[in-house]
Structure formats: C-alpha cells, structure tokens
Design brief:
The structure holds 2 protein chains of 2 kinds.
Chain A: E1 8-14, E2 22-28, E3 31-38, E4 43-48, E5 50-51, E6 56-57, E7 63-67, E8 72-76, E9 83-85, E10 101-102, E11 104-107, E12 110-115
Antiparallel strand pairs in A: 1-12, 2-3, 3-4, 4-10, 5-6, 7-8, 8-9, 11-12
Chain B: E1 4-9, H1 13-25, E2 29-34, H2 56-59, H3 66-69, E3 73-75, E4 80-84, E5 89-92, E6 97-99, E7 102-105, E8 109-111, E9 124-126, H4 130-140, E10 145-149, H5 153-164, E11 169-173, H6 186-198, E12 201-204, E13 209-213, E14 220-223, E15 228-230, E16 233-236, E17 240-242, H7 245-249, E18 260-262, E19 273-275, E20 280-282, E21 285-286, H8 290-304, E22 318-320, E23 327-331, E24 341-347, E25 352-358, E26 365-371, H9 377-385, H10 396-399, E27 420-422, E28 427-428, H11 429-437, H12 443-450, H13 460-473, H14 490-499, H15 505-512, H16 521-533, H17 546-549, E29 553-554, E30 560-562, H18 573-586, E31 589-592, E32 598-603, H19 608-617, E33 630-635, H20 649-660, E34 669-674, E35 688-693, E36 696-701, E37 713-719, H21 721-738, H22 745-751, H23 755-763, H24 771-783, H25 788-793, H26 796-800, E38 817-821, E39 824-828
Parallel strand pairs in B: 1-2, 1-7, 2-3, 7-19, 9-16, 10-11, 10-16, 11-12, 18-20, 33-34, 34-35
Antiparallel strand pairs in B: 4-5, 5-6, 8-17, 13-14, 14-15, 20-21, 22-23, 23-26, 24-25, 25-26, 27-28, 29-30, 30-32, 31-32, 35-36, 36-37, 38-39
Helix pairs in contact in B: 1-8, 11-13, 14-16, 21-24
The complex binds siroheme, flavin-adenine dinucleotide (FAD), iron/sulfur cluster and FE2/S2 (inorganic) cluster.
Flavin-adenine dinucleotide binds near residues 36 and 290 of chain B.
C-alpha cells in the first residue's frame, strides 16, 4: 500500500478544464503533467506529458480508452500511437518504455495531483 | 560455475542475434562484443528504407542501453585485428587485449568489388552499410544518371533506391543474359525486366564492363563490346565476399573462394572458435541471407549452454522487397522436365508470371517462381518445406480456385504443427496456434508473445491467416471488425449509426460496442459521424485524431501547421499578402505545397485561433489538411490562358473543390482538372480526375500518388459538366459509405469484386438502384458545410481548448524551440 505521508497534493486545475474522456496538460514548475478525465469510468489519471518514444510533449493530447477483458485504461500517443497503461505507466505496445504516473484526487471541482 | 568469457567479433545482424539468444538461454557467460562499425547492430535487410524516411535509430535492432542492461561489454568502432589462438586472446585496434574461453566470429561479408580499371574513381560506391548510403545520398544530389553493376537481388534493390533518390535515369548492368539469374528462370526474368522498365529502369543484359572512364570521377562505363554509357555515379553490387581475413591470419581453415570453414556445430578448425552468419562456409556454401545466419546463431548459443543442435543447410527461398514489383522464388525453382512436371501461368498484359514445379507423381510441390503477384509465396513455400500432399488440381495453387469447393489442402491449417512460419525467430505453426488459443487473437499480441513477424516481417500475412484460420476452426466467426470494442466492420457500423440516427461516440459505444473505446475505433466513428451528420467536429474533440482535434497537423516537436483553402490553386495578390503578413506576425515557416496551396508551419497551439481569426477575416476558410476529407482539386491554367486549353479547367476545379470541401471520408480525397490531354494537373493521379476533351470532359476515378502510385481509371467519356458532377456525387458517396477505414479510393477499388465494371454499373447504370439516394445524401453533406475554424474562432469555449497548459493558458510549451534556416525558421527537436 502507498503511504500517503510523503505525497504532496498540488492543485492542478479545475475539473472543467479537462475535456470529458480526454486529457489536458498542466505546468508544475518545470514539469509537464498530463491529466486525464475518464468521464466514462468516472475516473481521473495523471502521467508525464512526455512520450518516451520520440521525446514529444504530447501525451495529454492523446486519445484514451481501454484494452483487454479487464478494461485496462490506457492513453495512445498522438504521434505514433504507442499506448501506455494509465494505471502503472507500462507501455502496452510491446516496447520497453515506462512512463511516470501520478495519483489524482478530485474535490469540490478541483483536481489535485500527488507529487512524491 | 565460474563465468566463461565469450568474445563476439562483429556486431552485425547475426552477432547481435547471437547475444540475444545466448542471454535468453543462460546467464553464465561474460559476453564481450567488438564491432567495427561505429553504431550498434542495425537491420541491414531493411537498409533501403533509410532512403524512405527511416532513420539510423529506427533501423537499430535494440535500444542503445540494451547491451549494458544485459551485462554485455560493447566496443564499437574497434575492429579485432589479431587472434592469438595459443594464448586464447584477441587484440583490437584500440589496443585492447582480452582473453576468451570461446570466440564467435560474426564478421559478415563485404561487397565484392571486381578488379576493373578505374574502379577507384570518385562516384563509385558499394551498398552495404549506413555510411555507404550516406555517401550515395550526398553524391546523388548532383547526379542525373546512375548505374548499378549487377542485376541480382541486391542490385535491383540498389537501383530502386537510386530512383527513389531522384536520379533521373537509372541503368542496371548485368553480365548474365537475365536478371536475378540465381533465383528466377529466363521467362520470369523477361517479365520482371518489363515490369522494371515501367518503373523507369533501363536494363542492359549480357554486358560486361571493361573499364570506368573519367577524370578523377566517373563519367562513363566502357563495355567489352566497345559501347559506352555516360553515367554520373555507379553502385557496384556484384556479389559478396565473406570477411575471413582475421580468421585466415589466425591460421583457421578457409575456403578457396573465401569463407571460414565450419562444421554442423558452426565450429571452425579450432574448436574454441565458431563462425556464424555470412562469413561462415558450410559444405562449400555461404548463406547470404539473414534467416540461416540466425539459425547458426541459435546453434552456437544452444551448444554453449549445454544443448545440442546442428545445422543441415537452409532453405534459400527469397522474396524481393521492391515496392511495386513482386518477385519470389522458392524451393527448387530451376528443376525441369523430365525430373518434374512444370506448370506455368503467364499474363503479359498484367505482367504476371508464375511457375510451379511438381513431382512426377503429382503429389508434392518442389519449388517455383512468382513474378508480378507473389501473394501465394508464403503458403507455397510452406507446401514445399512441409511436403504437403497437393490437391487434385495443383493449378489452383497459382490460379486460385475457380468456382466450386475451395482447394482442400492448400489452406494454412493443413500445415503440420512444426511448420516453421517465422524463420527469423524460429516460430512454428504450433506456437502461433497455441498463442491464438490462449487469447492472442491479433497480430500485435502474437508479435508480443511469440516474436513471430518481428524480424523481416515477411511472414506477417501468413501469421494473420493462421490467426483467422484458428479462430474459425474454433467456431469463432471472424470478420473484419474495427477493434476489440466493436464487432462490426466500418460499413456495418455506418449503416447502424445511420439507421438509428446516433449522433455521438458515447452513444455509439453504449448501443453497439463494449468497453471504453480506444484510439482505433474513436477516429473511425468520428469519421462516420461526420460523414453522416457533418456536425462541428470539435464538439467531440477527444475522439478525433490529434490533427482533427486541433484542426491542424501536428509536427515534430509539437507545433502545428496552418493550411488555408485555396480552391483550384487560384489566389488573389491581396490574399497572398495576408498570408505573408500572418506568417510574419506569428513567426511561421511558409512553403508552397504539392497541392497548389501554401502551408504555414510551426504554430504554437495557443496561437492557432488568433491566426485563423486573421485568415478568416481576409476571406480564407479551413483547408482540411488535417482531416480525412477533401484536400485539393488541382487545376491547370486551362483555356483562359493556355494555347492548348479546351475548356476552363480552373473554374471547374474551383467549382468542384467548393462543392466537396469539408466532406469527411474514410481517407483523404484529392481531385484534379486538366484543360487538355497534356494533363498538366495530373488528374489521373488523383482520387478523381477530370480532363477536357473536344466534346466535354473525361472522368477518371481511383488514382493515387503516395507510396503505391496507381493511375486513375476512365469512368465516363465526353460528358458535360452537369453529368460529371452527378457522377462524382454518386461515386464519392458510394465510397464514403462502403470503404474500410483509412482506405484510399484506389485500394477500395482494388478490393472491390468486379472492379471498375462493377463501379461503372453502380454509378452510371444504377445497378443497385441507389443513385438517387447517393445524390441526396451528398447534397445534405454539401448543404451542411461550415468552416470548422470559423466555428472555433467565434466560440470562446472552443477557443479555450487551444492551450498547452490548462493551468497557465498564456504560457506556450517551453520545450518548443526554433532555429533559422534559409531565412526562415525551423523547429529544433
Ligand atoms: C504539405 C505537403 C507536402 C509539401 O510540402 O508539398 C504534405 C504534407 C504531408 N503529407 Fe502529403 N503532403 C502534401 C501533398 C501530398 C501529395 C501530392 C498531392 O496532393 O498532389 C501526395 C501524393 C498524392 C496522393 O495523396 O495520392 C501526398 C501523399 C501523402 C500520403 C500518402 C497517401 C497514400 O495514399 O499513400 C500521406 C500519408 C497518409 O495520408 O496516410 C501523406 C501525409 C502527409 C502529412 C499529413 C503527414 C502527417 O500526418 O503529418 C504531412 C503533413 C504536413 C504538415 O504538417 O502540414 N501525404 N501528399 C503537401 C500538402 C498538400 C496540400 O496542400 O494539402
Ligand atoms: C541492402 C541489403 C539488403 C538485404 N536484403 C536481404 C533480404 O531481403 N533478406 C535477407 O535474408 N538478407 C538480406 N540481406 C543480407 C543480410 O543483411 C545479411 O545476410 C546479414 O546482415 C548477415 O549478417 P552478419 O551478421 O553475418 O553480417 P553483417 O550484418 O554484415 O555484420 C558483420 C559485422 O561485423 C563487422 N566486422 C567485420 N570484421 C570485423 C572485425 N575484425 N572486428 C569487429 N567487427 C568486424 C562488420 O563491420 C559488420 O558490422 C541484405 C543485405 C543488404 C546489404
Ligand atoms: S493541360 Fe492543356 S490547358 Fe492545361 S496547361 Fe496543359 S496544355 Fe494548357
Ligand atoms: S512520440 Fe509517442 S509514439 Fe512516437
């Protein structure tokens, strides 16, 4: 289990900043974080915005969806459609890439991202 | 067990594969690799793709950190110069001396350069490494005429590369009386030659080169028959020479014509030294293909880790990778009567030649040759290799079954379990079918769990057939479904969405799909919804491909391009000035496109609405360069200015472009209108093309440029403008309704049963009784046209979405940087 003590919760944006079933990018210092509003599942996710394939700052503009029997949520990079699990950042297209994921909390129309 | 040290000499394809196989089998070894080239092992088989946009990185067989991650020490740019067999050490160029327990020589081969006077001249190249290709590319910029010496597999590939590099005139010089003398017979070679001629190659057979003429650099070839051929550059592809110099120096046994002699365990005359790949000589034979090299790598890796496996020769069947020409030979291609029965099918009109050699008792396929259509290559090769008993009418193998029951025994499922499907990765039919039964039901998941199809890729069609076949055999109904979320084809879904009048993606998914959707079905359905209802697409922005979501094409680095519509390529000076002003103001790079309009590159996503506001104020509209939609209708200047022009092609092009602008389709659509048969608008290369005749217009359809160019076919002759538009409405709407996603009109027609005559019947003779409906549906789309950029510009909520950071909308992506180039900007990335 995750210990919540060393997580800093940062106000990322407001819920209506992120389109339904899509993503948007936020700036946290010099870091770019992609936030996903998975309306269909009533879930929120966050990952790094950088796609490790060709180092493009674009994951927030990718399409989200799910794969497999267990409906594993994922995002597809808009550049070459490599897909990544929103749960653990694993590359689902068979490459060895790994992206960073962040915990997300939503309260009173505000979206918070947990920075470890 | 103490770690043994394995030193691998050569970091080519086979050397790399050996490391991969060895670490997969055992972790007991300390592996050290020496490579002479400056980069990590790359895919030489697909080297030519370096000229078609693949980078050196794309060709790499592994990531840069792979060696370190797996505990392998790698010395690049550092050839081994000496082997001391008594001490069991090697010595490299950089001065490193290391001890080995086992040594693996994977030094490959080099291009054979015949000793012809003048061969050292500038402008003479070989075709083996990325560096060779860089040199060829640089030199070709100033060359108009190029020649390739050698009409074999590699020579033809090199010749195609010269054409791709823009060499205006390319010659192939072959010493033998036919092309690919080692793979195909003379009838096949004749057919191949005529196909290659139509690609623009000049072929000279029976020609032996006496000398290369020129002052310092090559200027001409002189042949033994005293004729000459002026050339600016030359690529030599006259065969390969195994790199056995190191082995020879160390006193290992080598063949008289080169190659390090090995036994069936790939051991050289020194039992601690192995040789694999193109440097190894097994029973007098060098195997110049990658699959046997991989097999050799596997044998050594297995032996070192305690297994036993032996090499007994390898199948040398090949398929040529030339785009636009299918050539394959398999099994015993040359065996002739009376040792076998030979069946030949020839269609000189289409350029197809097929030959199969069958055992005299009619039971087995021995080998064959396929030119012009090699679709059956994989299955025929399997039939030979697995000694599958032939069906009663073996001609079906090359003709396809004509009516009646499908030929029994020719199907993929009749292959034995141990049939080798992917020879690069040694994956059998059993492995693939088991993976399918375990739930890997598409090509990507098969690649992931079995590695089949990840090497040269040649087996992919066969793997796909096996997946379909296995699913069918399990009673699963297989059809061309969109993705895991929808059990429908695009056409079925189009009809369902239409009949049920569903207008948004979520409802489509609720009614007809399952799960949460994905990047495959979202844009397909987005396209269907727009083709049907033509609603503002950014209302459902998150189901659009990135380009459609931001109504602009995304580029390297994350900037976007802006392409205003310039119908028919006609533009007023005032509008040109506005484009210039906008480009200057927002720091955009401008270029005239191949579609007769102007592209402005390098826009920040934040600037897009403002840029478009200014363009729209000046009377521009979206050019839909980002959408699967009508792009341009190219025009020639036509009768208004041109002395040959028969009709006003510009007016007609503008009329057509305005008519269909904004219409979404399964893939992009392009048109052209020429004022006479000189065809300056290249209308026959477009999805639809109109050419003026004395009596009216000729209408052509289903042409394509791009990677698989195809000329458009004549649909109707001498029709008036009104009829032309009517036919176009029907044709386009029929395409929009029935094509698979991302299928251009040319491919759609190629797959259509009955081809052009069927299409003519539907569009002109109304054989399906739907033309009125098609015209009506098209009219609805035309009536609902809106400029989608105008909708965004006028709507503050939509404008808000064009921000890089939602929590800092005024900040642009700091990662985007520009540098200058030819007095304009260029994105750094
Ligand atoms: C800008 C332009 C090149 C130029 O500088 O001239 C261009 C640029 C691109 N082309 Fe093209 N094509 C351009 C004319 C062409 C032409 C020539 C023509 O239209 O007469 C062709 C061959 C004709 C044809 O399509 O049949 C062409 C065949 C392609 C193809 C291959 C299509 C095929 O069926 O094989 C692609 C890939 C695709 O669409 O899947 C492509 C894709 C692309 C994309 C969209 C790649 C992408 O997804 O990022 C490029 C976007 C550039 C950008 O960021 O704006 N482009 N492209 C041309 C824009 C024309 C315009 O005004 O809209
Ligand atoms: C353009 C082209 C197209 C081809 N197409 C096909 C095809 O379609 N199908 C097919 O099966 N095959 C094809 N081939 C052949 C295929 O690429 C080779 O069979 C394969 O690369 C052989 O692998 P290898 O490791 O033995 O040799 P290489 O890949 O040549 O690797 C040998 C490496 O060893 C290095 N080396 C040599 N001496 C030393 C030394 N003393 N110390 C350190 N390093 C050394 C070399 O620099 C080289 O990097 C093609 C080849 C070319 C050039
Ligand atoms: S196609 Fe005909 S009308 Fe058009 S420019 Fe060429 S010659 Fe003139
Ligand atoms: S940059 Fe993301 S998939 Fe290529």
């Amino acid at each position: 289990m995750e210990t919540l003590t060393d997580i800093e919760w940062v106000l990322a944006c407001y819920t209506d900043d992120v389109p339904a079933n899509g993503g948007a990018c936020i700036k946290h210092g010099d870091e770019q974080i992609a936030i996903y509003n998975f309306t269909r599942r009533n879930e929120w996710y966050a990952t790094q915005n950088l796609c490790p394939h060709k180092q493009q700052m674009v994951l927030s503009r990718g399409m989200i969806g799910s794969t497999g029997e267990d409906c594993n949520p994922k995002v597809a990079c808009p550049f070459h459609k490599k897909t990544f699990s929103l749960i653990n950042g694993e590359c689902l297209s068979g490459d060895d890439y790994q992206i960073k994921t962040y915990p997300v909390k939503v309260a009173d129309g505000r979206v918070y991202v947990g920075i470890v | 067990m103490s770690q043994q040290t394995i030193i691998v000499v050569g970091n080519g394809m086979v050397g790399y594969k050996f490391c991969e196989k060895l670490i997969a089998k055992s972790s007991h070894f300390n592996i050290i690799v020496f490579g002479e080239e400056s980069r990590i092992a790359y895919d030489r088989v697909h080297l030519s793709e370096y000229f078609n946009g693949k980078s050196a990185d794309d060709l790499s067989l592994s990531s840069g950190s792979w060696y370190a991650d797996n505990g392998i020490t790698l010395y690049l740019n550092d050839p081994v110069q000496e082997i001391n067999r008594a001490e069991k050490t090697i010595h490299s160029l950089s001065g490193t001396t290391l001890k080995y327990d086992y040594l693996v020589l994977a030094t490959g081969s080099s291009a054979f350069v015949p000793d012809i006077p003048g061969v050292e001249k500038e402008g003479v190249f070989v075709y083996r490494t990325i560096e060779d290709l860089d040199l060829i590319k640089a030199y070709s910029a100033n060359a108009k005429v190029g020649a390739v010496m050698g009409g074999g597999l590699l020579g033809l590939e090199a010749a195609k590369a010269l054409i791709d590099l823009g060499i205006e005139e390319t010659h192939v010089i072959e010493f033998a009386p036919r092309l690919m003398p080692r793979q195909i017979d003379s009838a096949g070679s004749g057919m191949l030659a005529s196909k290659l001629k139509s690609l623009g190659l000049n072929i000279h057979l029976n020609k032996s080169t006496a000398s290369f003429i020129g002052e310092g650099r090559i200027e001409a070839l002189k042949f033994n028959d005293d004729s000459t051929l002026p050339v600016d550059m030359m690529v030599i592809s006259a065969g390969i020479r195994p790199r056995d110099e190191l082995a020879k120096l160390a006193g290992l046994q080598v063949g008289t014509r080169g190659g390090i002699i090995v036994n069936e365990k790939m051991q050289t005359s020194d039992e601690s030294i192995f040789a694999i790949g193109e440097c190894a000589l097994y029973e007098g034979m060098i195997y110049g293909l990658v699959a046997p090299g991989y097999e050799m790598a596997d044998i050594v890796a297995a032996w070192l880790s305690g297994g036993s496996k032996a090499f007994y020769g390898y199948d040398m069947s090949t398929k040529l990778k030339l785009i636009g020409v299918d050539v394959a030979s398999f099994g015993d291609a040359f065996i002739t009567e009376p040792d076998c029965r030979t069946l030949v099918y020839e269609d000189t009109y289409k350029g197809v030649y097929k030959r199969i050699n069958i055992s005299n008792d009619g039971k087995y396929l021995l080998g064959g040759i396929l030119i012009g259509d090699a679709d059956a290559y994989n299955i025929l090769l399997q039939t030979v290799n697995n000694k599958i008993v032939l069906p009663p009418n073996p001609e079906d193998l090359i003709l396809g079954s004509r009516g009646g029951e499908a030929a029994e025994g020719a199907g993929v499922l009749s292959l034995p379990d141990d049939a080798l499907i992917c020879s690069c990765e040694a994956v059998s039919k059993f492995d693939i079918c088991s993976a399918v039964n375990d739930g890997a039901t598409n090509i990507d998941s098969i690649k992931k769990c079995t590695k089949a199809g990840t090497g040269c890729g040649g087996c992919v069609p066969l793997v796909k057939d096996l997946i379909t076949g296995t699913l069918k055999a399990n009673g699963q109904y297989v059809k061309n479904v969109i993705c895991e979320h929808f059990d429908y084809s695009r056409q079925e879904l189009y009809d369902l969405v239409k009949i049920n009048k569903v207008k948004n993606y979520d409802l489509v998914l609720d009614h007809f799909g399952k799960g949460d959707g994905c990047e495959v079905c979202k844009p397909v359905i987005a396209g269907i919804l727009s083709s049907l209802w033509n609603d503002v697409i950014v209302k459902q922005d998150t189901i659009q491909d990135s380009n459609d979501r931001y109504l602009a094409n995304i580029q390297k680095g994350g900037t976007y391009s802006v392409v205003p519509r310039i119908p028919g390529g006609e533009i007023t000076p005032d509008k040109l000035i506005v484009i210039g002003q906008v480009a200057k103001k927002y720091g955009l790079y401008t270029k005239i496109t191949g579609g007769q309009r102007i592209d402005l590159f390098g826009a920040h996503v934040n600037d897009l609405p403002q840029i478009w506001e200014e363009l729209i104020d000046a009377g521009f509209e979206s050019g839909h360069a980002y959408g699967k939609a009508l792009r341009t209708v190219k025009s020639c200047v036509g009768s208004t200015w041109c002395r040959f022009g028969l009709h006003d092609s510009v007016s007609f092009a503008i009329e057509i472009e305005d008519r269909y602008k904004g219409v979404r389709s399964p893939h992009k659509l392009k048109g052209g209108v020429s004022g006479c048969i000189r065809e300056c608008a290249e209308a026959q290369a477009k999805d639809f093309g109109v050419i003026a005749t004395e009596k009216g217009w000729n209408l052509y359809v289903c042409g394509n440029g791009g990677s698989k160019p195809q000329h458009a076919l004549l649909l109707a002759t001498d029709i008036d403008s009104e009829t032309c538009i009517k036919y176009l409405d029907r044709f386009l709407m029929f395409y929009i309704k029935t094509a698979d996603p991302l299928t251009r009109t040319a491919t759609w027609l190629n797959k259509m049963e009955g081809g052009l005559s069927y299409l003519k019947n539907v569009v002109i003779n109304d054989s399906l009784g739907i033309v009125e409906q098609l015209e009506e549906e098209m009219q609805q789309l035309i009536n609902s046209y809106h400029c989608e950029w105008k909708e965004v510009v006028d709507n503050p909520d939509l404008r808000k979405r064009f921000a890089h950071f939602v929590n800092a909308p005024e900040v642009k992506d700091p990662n985007i940087k520009f540098e200058s180039m030819r007095q304009q900007v260029k994105a750094q990335w």
